[in-house]
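Thread amino acids onto this structure.
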């Protein structure tokens, strides 16, 4: 009886997703530890511990709380990128263009803030509109010309990157390739903190972007799971021909889905860059890694909007924790390597979930066969 209850518990989809994510995380840390052992076994245990602790490495509680706030600030855009990925994936689309949409969000929000001196909320809306337009272009190509969204997304990534590089050269510093600091040029473009900065010990980068990035996944979950529109989107993802047969506008759904995905990614960029935490380098030659990390966060979170919050925090946590590894014992790239290993293994969450489901199914089959054999033997007697 206990075994049946335990097995039923493990058959729960949410439980399987959590267990699969934990296995991938532990495997990633184990492989990272082995790499550290090969380089220098003396400090391997401390190094992997420092990576996992991140802000807890600071001795003073005040410093811990402040740097915890920094991690949250960087988690907000990652949550939005993971939402962009999972939202499109639910509709059967793989939004590889999320990195370019994120870049567009950076460019438009910063240009609106620095060139037009617009307030923060207008900058965010313009960034979202730009990301939505980029996503809609891929959606139109997919819906009306059956162009694979992965191909169009990759092309749009580079178009977006070099477009914003050219655009932001108009608002960069005279002596460097970096854009002007927003807080010095247009303070109204900074996202307000509403007291959160004081709560996190005067962390000036802590703004309402963090709670907004937690609220938006909840809204996306409600949209997907509790509305007719969300049902239509998912139905299109399962089988667009069947959706069309049932009277759903599958072309519209494809375009709208990628547009919403683009808006989410671009909004995440505005959430981060309108805090003045970073400036954009106008000579950047690679698309932002945040977009691709969003893919890992989405899958690590089990393609669940609520799970994406926790997975995004974990990925950002270990990424930041890598900075605490002793650079006297290990090369500076080792933290990025370990973070990359863990992020890479996040892609195997669904494989782990499938393996667990298959194992449980085999156990059920064996138990059923055993019960049938016992029943048959009893009948013969």
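Threaded sequence (381 positions):
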């Amino acid at each position: 009886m206990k075994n049946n209850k335990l097995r039923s518990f493990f058959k729960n989809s949410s439980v399987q997703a959590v267990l699969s994510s934990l296995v991938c995380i532990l495997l990633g840390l184990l492989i990272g530890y082995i790499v550290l052992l090969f380089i220098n076994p003396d400090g391997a245990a401390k190094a992997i511990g420092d990576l996992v602790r991140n802000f807890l490495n600071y001795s003073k509680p005040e410093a811990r709380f402040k740097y915890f706030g920094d991690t949250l600030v960087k988690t907000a855009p990652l949550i939005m990128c993971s939402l962009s990925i999972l939202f499109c994936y639910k509709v059967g689309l793989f939004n590889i263009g999320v990195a370019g949409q994120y870049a567009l969000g950076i460019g438009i929000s910063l240009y609106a803030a620095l060139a037009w001196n617009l307030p923060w909320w207008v900058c965010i809306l313009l960034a979202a509109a730009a990301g939505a337009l980029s996503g809609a272009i891929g959606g139109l190509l997919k819906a009306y010309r059956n162009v694979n969204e992965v191909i169009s997304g990759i092309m749009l990534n580079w178009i977006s990157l070099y477009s914003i590089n050219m655009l932001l050269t108009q608002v960069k510093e005279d002596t460097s390739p970096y854009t002007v600091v927003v807080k010095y040029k247009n303070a109204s473009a900074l996202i307000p903190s509403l007291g959160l900065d004081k709560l996190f010990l005067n962390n000036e980068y802590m703004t309402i972007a963090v709670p907004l990035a937690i609220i938006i996944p909840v809204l996306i979950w409600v949209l997907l799971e509790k509305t007719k529109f969300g049902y239509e989107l998912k139905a299109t993802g399962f089988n667009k021909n069947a959706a069309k047969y049932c009277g759903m506008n599958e072309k519209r759904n494809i375009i709208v889905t990628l547009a919403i995905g683009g808006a989410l990614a671009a909004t995440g960029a505005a959430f981060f860059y309108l805090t003045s935490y970073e400036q954009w380098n106008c000579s950047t030659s690679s698309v932002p890694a945040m977009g691709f990390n969003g893919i890992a966060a989405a899958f690590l979170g089990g393609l669940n909007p609520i799970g994406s919050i926790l997975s995004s925090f974990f990925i950002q946590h270990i990424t930041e924790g890598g900075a605490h590894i002793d650079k006297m014992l290990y090369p500076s790239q080792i933290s990025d390597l370990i973070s990359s290993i863990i992020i890479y293994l996040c892609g195997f969450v669904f494989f782990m979930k499938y393996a667990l489901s298959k194992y449980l199914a085999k156990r059920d089959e064996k138990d059923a066969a055993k019960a049938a054999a016992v029943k048959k033997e009893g009948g013969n007697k």
